[in-house]
Amino acid sequence: MHRSLGREWGLTLVEILVVTAIIGALAALLFPTFAKAKSRARQTSCISQLRQIGMAMLMYTADHGELAPRLSAVHPTYCPEASVFVCPSDPASGQHDAGEYMEGATHLPSGVSYTYIPNWKYARELGWWAPPPHYGRGKWGDSTPLAMCHWHWGKRWVADLDTPTWGRDPKGWVLVLEAGGAVRRIRAEQPVSEFDPTA
Question: For a tag site, which of 37, 95, 176, 181 has the least CB within 10 Å?
Answer without folding.
Answer: 37
